[in-house]
Amino acid sequence: MSAKRILIVDNEPYIQEVAQISLETTAGWEVITADSGASGIAIAADRQPDAILLDVMMPDMDGITTFKALHSNPSTQAIPVILLTAKVQAADRRRYQDLGIQATIAKPFDPLQLANQIADILNWSIELS
Fold it and tell me: How many domains does the chain contain in total?
C-alpha cells in the first residue's frame, strides 16, 4: 500500500512545519504544504492529495472560501477536507458539517496525535514499515 499524501493549507509556517514533521514521522505520509487558499487549490488540482488539512483563518482567501472552490471543482471535489481551527464551538461544527467538510481538528493540536486523529476521521489505518 502506498503512503497517503496530505496537503496542509495554512498561512502560518510554524503550523505547516509541525504538522508536516508529525505526519511524516508518526504515519510515514507524504506531506505537501501551501501557504494560501489560492495555492492550495492549485496544488490540490495538480497533486491530487488523499486529504487536505485546511486552516480556517487565512488572509485573502479564508478556509471556507477555499473549501467551496475545492468542492466546486470536479478534479478536487472528492478530496476529503479536515479543518484546522481554533473555532470549534458546536454551532461552528454544525455549519462546517452542513457545508460538507469532513471534520474539524482544534488548534492547537497535539502533534503526536494528529496522524491518529486524521486516520480515525477518514477510517485509514496507519502502517509504518
Answer: 1
List of residues 6+ apart from 127 with CB closer than 8 A:
1, 28
3-state per-residue secondary structure call for 71-109: HHCCCCCCCCEEEEECCCCHHHHHHHHHHCCCEEEECCC
Chain segment 79-94, per-residue pLDDT in tens: 999 999 887 777 888 8
DSSP three-state, residue 5: strand
pTM for the model stands at: 0.93
d(CA 103, CA 100): 9
Full domain range(s) for residue 17: 5-122
Q: Specify the pLDDT at position 128.
A: 64
